[in-house]
């Protein structure tokens, strides 16, 4: 006989664990499955060395569901977003513009945390919730739905009946495919290297995004590492160049990245291994199927610019939580799920378009186009109301 629960979360990545913990804290009986057990220490094989800058609305959600407590001491606040346009054969900062959170808020834009640590803390929270059952090593296999429930078979041969299936199973989401929901994918021929560094010049809680060509080079503050100022770097480049950088001997790589950073933080030293991620944009044609909600990368993938990816996912989650709280008896029914689709889909498509444009602008190689980009940055920045609106849009509050 199939086991029963309110919500089956397919996927225990950062988004899936957050969803399981929040729905559990809201009182629902949750089962969360993932074939790949989460890696919860920094230096272990397979650890996720990306970081997530949680913007204000995401931090509020995590606080509300008691997920922030375990994170607060490890978070680096982001007070200023610095955009640098770099030029010249030996890259130099031509234009530097600071977007300061104090222009729009009395709090920082966000707080940066390593993804491996998020998994550790979210798992700890889930362990304290008797109504959440996390099953690492087990995946979802097939989906069969009726008006009243979804029946999902799992890779261990068992079956689960749920009122709602939340697909957080990544960009190739098996649950999305099982429901026959198509996606639109844009490929840029780009990859991102993600790793941590130490540097002699303190970051002073400034997140710095340096544009030249190939894509942005972004340093996001981390707490000190072994007594040295430290940052997480996301370095986007054309695929072949990114592969070359991944394989480069450490000293040469350090020289290359110091050059690419315009030397703004002094000599950069690797403080972790390098990881590499293919860059795409992707959107699902719908966010809902019968008894199924798509969220996070199962629903949308964006290039890592402006800390949007997981933050958008937590807006999805907030929307689902609010709809479930407003009408708990309607959990997973067509009314709830079409309201979810309506509330989120257009906003997601707009954000994907905006980030796509920023990425293409950052990839530009010809000098005249890069000059135009620099002029554009100057113009946008010099108009205070436009500047403030851009910051609010970045936070997702406008
Ligand atoms: C370099 C880089 C930097 C980024 N920086 C930021 C940032 O600063 N801020 C931000 O908001 N976002 C950022 N993002 C985006 C963010 O990292 C992602 O949105 C997020 O990690 C994706 O989470 P996810 O849980 O949706 O997907 P995933 O992490 O891919 O998780 C999907 C999970 O589903 C599981 N799965 C697969 N098949 C099954 C199955 N059959 N059954 C059950 N489970 C299954 C997988 O094992 C996996 O654990 C960044 C992305 C990149 C590439």
Secondary structure elements and their pairing?
Elements: E1 3-10, H1 14-25, E2 30-34, E3 51-55, H2 56-64, H3 69-72, E4 76-78, E5 80-87, E6 92-100, E7 110-114, H4 115-127, E8 132-136, E9 140-145, E10 150-154, E11 159-167, H5 174-178, E12 183-198, E13 206-211, E14 217-225, E15 228-238, H6 239-247, H7 250-260, E16 269-270, E17 275-284, E18 288-289, E19 292-294, E20 300-301, H8 309-326, H9 334-363, H10 367-382, H11 384-395
Parallel strand pairs: 1-2, 1-11, 2-8, 5-13, 11-19
Antiparallel strand pairs: 3-7, 4-7, 5-6, 9-10, 10-11, 12-15, 12-16, 12-17, 13-14, 14-15, 17-20, 18-19
The structure holds flavin-adenine dinucleotide (FAD).
What features would you describe in this structure?
This protein has about 400 residues and is α+β, with helices and mostly antiparallel strands. It folds into 2 domains: about 5-45 and about 115-185 and about 280-360, FAD/NAD(P)-binding domain, CATH 3.50.50.60; about 70-110 and about 190-280 and about 365-395, D-Amino Acid Oxidase, Chain A, domain 2 (2-Layer Sandwich), CATH 3.30.9.10. The protein has 11 helices and 20 strands. The strands form 3 sheets. Strands 5, 6, 12, 13, 14, 15, 16, 17 and 20 form a 9-stranded mixed β-sheet that branches. Strands 1, 2, 8, 9, 10, 11, 18 and 19 form an 8-stranded mixed β-sheet that branches. A 3-stranded antiparallel β-sheet has the order 3-7-4. Helix 1 (about 15-25) links the parallel strand 1 (about 5-10) and strand 2 (about 30-35). Helix 8 packs antiparallel against helix 9 (about 335-365). It is globular, with a radius of gyration of 21 Å. The termini are far apart.
């Amino acid at each position: 006989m199939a086991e029963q629960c309110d919500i089956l979360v397919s996927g225990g990545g950062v988004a899936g664990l957050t969803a399981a913990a929040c729905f559990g804290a809201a009182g629902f009986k949750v089962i969360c499955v993932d074939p790949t057990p989460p890696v919860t220490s920094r230096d272990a094989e397979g650890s996720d060395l990306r970081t997530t800058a949680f913007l204000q609305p995401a931090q509020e959600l995590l606080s509300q569901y008691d997920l922030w407590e375990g994170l607060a001491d490890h978070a680096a606040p982001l007070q200023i977003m610095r955009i640098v346009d770099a030029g010249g054969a030996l890259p130099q900062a031509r234009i530097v513009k600071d977007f300061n959170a104090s222009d729009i808020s009395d709090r920082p834009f966000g707080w940066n945390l390593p993804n491996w640590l998020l998994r550790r803390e979210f798992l700890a929270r889930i362990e304290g919730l008797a109504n959440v059952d996390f099953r690492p090593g087990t995946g979802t296999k097939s989906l069969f739905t009726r008006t009243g429930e979804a029946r999902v078979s799992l890779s261990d041969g068992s079956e689960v009946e749920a009122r709602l299936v939340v697909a957080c199973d990544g960009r190739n989401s098996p649950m999305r495919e099982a429901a026959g929901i198509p996606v639109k994918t844009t490929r840029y021929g780009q990859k991102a290297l993600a790793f941590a560094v130490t540097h002699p010049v303190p970051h002073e809680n400034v997140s710095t995004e340096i544009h030249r060509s190939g894509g942005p080079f972004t340093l996001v503050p981390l707490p000190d590492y072994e007594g040295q100022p430290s940052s997480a770097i996301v370095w986007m480049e054309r695929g072949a160049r990114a592969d070359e950088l991944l394989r480069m001997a450490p000293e040469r790589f350090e020289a290359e990245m110091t050059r690419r950073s315009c030397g703004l933080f002094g000599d950069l030293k690797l403080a972790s291994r390098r990881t590499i991620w293919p860059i795409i944009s992707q959107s699902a044609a719908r966010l809902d199927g019968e008894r199924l909600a798509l969220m996070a990368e199962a629903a949308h993938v964006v290039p890592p610019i402006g800390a949007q990816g997981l933050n958008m996912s937590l807006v999805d989650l907030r929307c689902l939580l609010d709809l479930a709280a407003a009408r708990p008896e309607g959990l997973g029914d067509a009314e709830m799920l079409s309201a979810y689709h309506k509330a989120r889909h257009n906003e997601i498509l707009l954000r994907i378009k905006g980030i796509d444009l920023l990425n293409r602008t950052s990839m530009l190689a010809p000098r005249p186009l890069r000059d135009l980009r620099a002029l554009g940055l100057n113009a946008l920045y010099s108009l205070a109301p436009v500047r403030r609106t851009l910051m609010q849009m970045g936070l997702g509050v406008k």
